[in-house]
Design brief:
The structure is a homodimer of 511-residue chains. With 511 residues, chain A is of the alpha+beta class. Helix content of chain A is 42%, strand content 18%. Chains A, B: It is an enzyme of class 6 (ligase).
């Protein structure tokens, strides 16, 4: 027995080794250490079983969606797409792979997370990292100067899924963008209105939307004494304020990024500020900031933005927050991020005690990027853009948890065509076919002689509300019994009128 | 001038070179031959322009979908998804990449068309080649023994897009499959019913569905004297009968595959046979075929299948055709393929005279594959499956051509909030926001003072049926003008009741 314990512990190591590198045979050493304990044949079998088992695993960081998850996903997508359509958006789609060249130099440090395709001859290809760069490429390539579009599709990142919470290597993005030369802040305000509407409708609890402007940040850095070339890297450090305390952020600024204590402290004063339109007005009077052209432009636009948000009645959730920085390089103006107030338990694979309950954090973000399209245009023609991306995976996780104990229907079947006696397969198939032909969602069990009980059970398990029960006597009388599965009430319908009657019943009771 | 001609001809070669290998600088030789002709600076500019231009091209064989194409795609998907749901199907999704191992050994010769990801450390990954193998992997991995599911997603093939007609490297598949141990031919018949319903609803003109059975084919090969080990390769040759004459197919059998003339002639007799249930009965009496166990099983099931198809009222389009073979290795029983009767003009890039009008060919296909799931199960447990895949890209092409001259709406906006005078931006934004809040699809131009004409033009261009026109006098009177863009009829609505009234009008006239 002790022998066996020892063996299985080693087998576990061996198994995890195989899982990691399925294409490699286990090292000879391991095999040798296993063999003396048990018969070689048993070892060979286990080895085979492990390899075969690995044949049908998935890449970690990716996942299948089962029917229940798909039903939730469909519900979430419907809410988001309805909102995008309500705002008059068209939709486009782009290929999942772009020429590697297209993605190069757009994501800064994150470029290392791009998935490349193997060079099998022909062009060098990469999987798309987000939907914004393909959108900009699409605009430049088709010389489109204004469009309001949404795009819902999967993007790919070589992130370490174990190190990030609720993050996947393949995940959906839901993007809404407005491209075109328009009067200031009107499209920007609509993007915020959209985030507000979607988060309200998804009913995920309280949330707030932080707003800032890259020009205000840059102006602030300038008046605080940050050298020009350090703007972007200090911006990245400020971006960590949602996860780190100011003291740690300051340490990074001073120790790693080489700012003086004084400069860091001055930044610290600004980034602690939060408010609304009033804060923008107050900062426009700030003796230092008001001297900076960039900051003034940003603050004036911020005032204007809040006046539009007031008209859209969304200011109760929007906060002008000078600590919001956002990572990506391509933003040029207003930036924003929506944050849910609720926390969720950490995913199962995360066992760190400090991660027992994590803040869901950002579920939407975006901003203005007026320079990106120009990077794809041979003549550098710019198309101003502003957009928002909904972080749908985190929303899925929350919705899944909310419905974890609920029964979610995964089909829409309205009626099961069943029989009470044997030898009625033909009658069942014929009636089912007639129902399909009139658009009624119907199922029939694929058995010649299913038991009535198992047919009723199928209805209860999958939530089918009605069952049409064929019987020999009833068929002779020219009728079919229709039973409400939940209430067990029954009515008799005349066979020749069943399709019509069933349609009426469905419209009346189950729509 | 002659100099220029010469230069530009060479430039064309040079350009096409750059397009093929965008990441490489042009070879020094080419540059040298270009330079003597023109000033170095001009050359450098052209070189730069070519490279920049290439920066935003797409991989050939992939494409963007513009809003009009997306509107058509949505319409097609809605028809297909409605049908799948009418038949009680759930849906699942799987990642776009699978472990390379999962796809290995499933596609025979076609394996060379699989896209591999670059080995950037970690597992070896490939892009999915179809949805059937990931489905089988999903069933085995989750130990699911019965499910009726649909899956609509993109798949990837390293096909040469210039050599194939209407084929892409990235394209959608719409799959419907029934997995489970059921009574013979009932799910198989439902798959054919689904193809029939979808092709009818898509309204693509006349079509027919060819049906055959792998067991009948194998039995036929056996009684004709084909050696066992040549069954699959002869099957591939038979599969070419839809594109090649019998004489050429026969030549391939004899000259390339090494069959004797006699054997080939015997096959030729069988594969020219077409019919229905009667043909199955006739072949069951065939002195040779009736001696083969496999063929008998297939023919008996074919008879049964036709009896169910009769009940489903679809036999008018279904033909039992002994020449149908289908390429993939994994089929084990019934196979089918739907073919449209109409031809379409060849795509623009195809200039071969013989391709002026091509048959659309197969738009759906599938069959029974009872062994595939077992390949993924450690204990080899089998889950019988039958399914169908709708070839959606060809259907898109036809629908696009049908609507090429039509105006297709790409948004669903119901009303534009406009103004007749200046300085009414705030009132416009406020009313638009109220409309959004009640679920009305509304747009507003992002200009402070747009001209009424350009607002009306926007409605006409994008098909918005109604325009609410704000005016100073009207606002004082507490009314808003609502204009029907097409008929130019106008009504005056009281401001406080506009949302309610507009909802009524929309329900009454535009739903």
């Amino acid at each position: 027995m002790t022998y066996d314990c020892f063996f299985f512990r080693r087998l576990k190591v061996f198994a995890s080794f195989c899982r990691r590198r399925v294409s490699l045979p286990p090292p000879a050493g391991l095999m040798l250490r296993l063999q003396p304990l048990h018969a070689a044949s048993q070892c060979a079998y286990l080895y085979y079983a492990l390899l075969v088992k690995n044949k049908y695993t998935l890449l970690s960081g990716t996942r299948d969606y089962n029917p229940k998850q798909m039903a939730i996903r469909e519900k979430v997508f419907n809410i988001i797409i309805s909102c995008f359509k309500r705002h008059g958006a068209e939709t486009i789609d782009t290929p999942v792979f772009e020429l590697k060249e297209t993605l190069t130099g757009k994501y800064g440090e994150d470029s290392k997370l791009i998935y490349d395709l193997k060079d099998q001859g022909g062009e060098l290809l990469s999987l798309r990292y987000d939907l914004t760069v393909p959108f900009a490429r699409y605009l430049a390539m088709n010389k489109i100067t204004n469009i309001k579009r949404y795009h819902i599709a999967k993007v790919y990142r070589r992130d370490n899924p174990a190190m990030t919470r609720g993050r996947y290597r393949e995940f959906y993005q839901c993007d809404f963008d407005i491209a075109g030369q328009y009067d200031a802040m009107i499209p920007d305000a609509e993007c915020l209105k959209i985030v507000y509407e979607i988060l309200n409708e998804l009913d995920l609890g309280d949330f707030h939307i932080k707003v800032n402007d890259r020009r205000i940040l840059d102006g602030m850095f300038a008046v605080c004494g940050v050298p020009d070339e350090k703007f972007r890297t200090i911006c990245s450090t400020v971006d960590k304020l949602d996860k780190m305390a100011w003291e740690d952020v300051k340490k990074e600024m001073v120790n790693e990024k080489g700012l003086s204590e004084d400069v860091a402290n001055r930044i610290g004063e600004y980034v602690s500020m939060q408010g609304g339109q009033d804060l923008a007005e107050q900062l426009l009077q700030d003796p230092k900031l008001s001297q900076n052209k960039q900051a003034c432009a940003g603050l004036t636009d911020m005032k204007l933005l809040f006046s539009y948000l007031e008209l859209f009645q969304v200011t109760d959730k929007v906060v002008f927050d000078l600590s919001l920085a956002r990572g990506l390089d391509y933003y040029t103006g207003v930036i924003y991020e929506a944050i849910l107030s609720q926390t969720i338990p950490a995913p199962a694979e995360q066992n760190g005690a400090d991660e027992a309950a994590v803040s869901v954090g950002s579920v939407a973000g975006g901003g203005r990027y007026d320079g990106l399209v120009g990077m794809f245009d041979p003549k550098g023609r710019k198309v101003p853009c502003v957009g928002v991306s909904i972080g749908i995976e985190r929303i899925f996780s929350i919705m899944e948890q909310k419905t974890s104990s609920e029964k979610v229907r995964t089909t829409e079947t309205q009626v099961l065509v069943a029989s009470a006696q044997k030898n009625l397969l033909e009658e069942r198939l014929k009636l089912t076919s007639e129902l399909w032909n009139t658009g009624i969602k119907a199922e029939v069990l694929y058995k010649k002689n299913p038991k009535l009980l198992s047919q009723l059970q199928h209805c209860e398990e999958t939530g089918i509300p009605l069952v049409a029960i064929l019987g020999e006597q009833e068929l002779k009388d020219g009728v079919v019994k229709l039973r409400n599965v939940a209430s067990r009430e029954e009515v008799r319908l005349i066979v020749s009128q069943i399709v019509y009657n069933l349609s009426c019943i469905l419209t009346k009771h189950f729509d």
